[in-house]
Each structure stands twice: as C-alpha cells, then as structure tokens.
Task: structure prediction
Amino acid sequence: MSENQLLEVIERYLNGEMTIEELRKFELLRKESAEVDGKVVEHQLFTNLLKQYGERVELENRLNAIHAEIDVHTLKEELTEHPVWIVQMWRHHHSKISVAVSVAMFVFLGVLAFSGKFDNNDSKIERLKYENAKLNQKVVNINKSVNDIKAGKNVVINDRASSTGTGFALPDGLIATNYHVIQDADSIYIQNNAGSSFKARVLYTEPEHDIAILRVVDDSFSLGAIPYTFKKSEIDEAESIYTYGYPSGIPKYDIGYLASKTGLNGDSVHYQVAIPTNPGNSGSPVWDNKGNIVAIIDAAQSRYEGTHFAIKSRYLLDAIRNIPADSLKGKPVTLNKKNGLAGLSIVEKTRKMKKYTFMVKVYN
Result:
C-alpha cells in the first residue's frame, strides 16, 4: 500500500466511513504494525491541530473586533469627561471579553500540547506555532486593555503606544514616514506639537525604499497649506541640513551636514548624514538652508555609532507619484511649488516645521 493510499484509508477510518469488516481489518492491522498505528496517531493529532487552528483564526477575528470596540486610545479623552460611560461599557462587554480571552488561552495551550508531539523541523507545525504565538500576544494586549478600562473609574488611562516614530505633512491630509515605523501596526495615530492626536491609516507603502504614506482619517484634523517644497536634485557634501522629530517621544531639533551622497556600502537610496538620530527619529524631515525638504531620516539604518542615514527626497516624490489613482479618489497629490520658508531665519523655519511634523504612534 502506497503512502497516499494509506493516508486515504486513515482518513476514512478517522471519519467513520469504513464498513464493519473494513474497520475490523484495519484495527487488526494497527495492532500488528507499530508503523501504521503511529501514522494513525500522528494524522489524528495533525488533523485536530488544523481544526483548532481554523477555530483560532475565527477567534482571532472575533478578538480583533472586540479590540476595535474598546480602543483604549480613543477612550482616553472621553474617560475624564464620561467616566460613568466607561464603567458601563466595561460592564456591558466584560463577560464576552473574559470568555474570549479564556477560550483563546485554552486553544493556545491545547495547540502547543499537540504540536509538541511532532518533529520540530516540520515547517507546517512551526508555522502554526508561530501563528499561535502571535495570537497569544494579541490576547495579552486585549487583556491589558480590559484591565485599563476596569481601572478607569476615576483614573485617566495611560496612552502607551507600542512604538513611536516621526512623520511630516504632505498636502490633502497625507503624512510621510518610514515603512518600518508603521509595519505590522494594528492602529496608527499622529500627535502634533500641541499634544492633540488624530487617527491615521496606511495609504501607500514602498518597503524597498522604507517609505510609507499615511492618510489622516480624523475629521477634526486641519492643517492648511504646506509651506515647504521638495528638492528633486541631490545636495552636496558639507551642505548644512536640519531636522525636527520625536526621538524617544520627545520633540527635538538638530543641525548637521551631509557627509556622503551614498549610504552604507554605496547605497544610492540613502545619504550619510552627520546629524544625530535615535529611535523615534525615523520619518523626520530633513531640510536645507532654504527650507527645501531634501531627505527623510532613517534611524533603522543607523547600525554603527556615529553613522546616520537619510532617504533621498526624490524617492519620496516617486512614491507620491506611484500612489494608485483609486486610493486618491481621482484627486492627485499636488505639491507646493512655492517655498514659504525661503528667507526665514533658522529659528523661524524650525518654528514653522514644528507645526507640520508629527509623532507617529503605533499600536500593535
């Protein structure tokens, strides 16, 4: 009997599709052949695992829906004004949230128990383990949100983003940042220098150039005309450059110069810049003496002490042109052709840039 034929017989056996005589013969074969018996046990465990994985996917969708309902960030401002409403919402949802979390943990532990009987080199099993680990993290995050809401009777819920970066304004409510800043985000908010936050969504990405363009979807967001322009040509070594961003969530201005027209190992997408960059700086605008945007800080490339990089502005311009027309609803992005920062002092330029530069807050 071939391997495939044996698997078909095992399927019929496990599904109860055998006749009484076939069942008697197969059970006798299991007793006589340890190899066949082992394959039956293995196949049964594997099919159970797949079944539970399907249930896990359905559960994950349900948990995501619940998580969206109890978005902690959205509740932050409402909490101080309507604490009673928050308590009522918790009372309304706590039972299904608790059940969902308990079931998720049960499924997760059960899957681990089953998968532990298989060869760790089996790629399918390892993938399932990985997916369940991701679910476990989501359950932890939801449980944390539940606890925050429970504690919110008379307490302001802390706004804890999973990670932060920087972004800056483009026309029509769009925001430019790095792809690695928003990668795998469940939700994204931008925060201005006054501390107000606005919900955003990913509109377009070019991971190969580490560029992402967001759209602000909050109706209360209003910014006005963008004062700066974007330089298409490359700048020269030793030119002075400036940046403003949110390293570690703290607003910070820096000044430096262009060290090299190429990045690491001759990379033509990046400049090497002599300007400090830290986690949270990714996505910060870099401008020249005239206030032209010349690059975007890429802190993820800063692997070596004293070596920092920025993506050339022409790659951002290319990304803007590459946004699908249907994503823009037939309205192409029109960039400013007149530089409103030219002629201003460095202090005045920076003051203007602060208004158009945002902390990007990512929630996973």
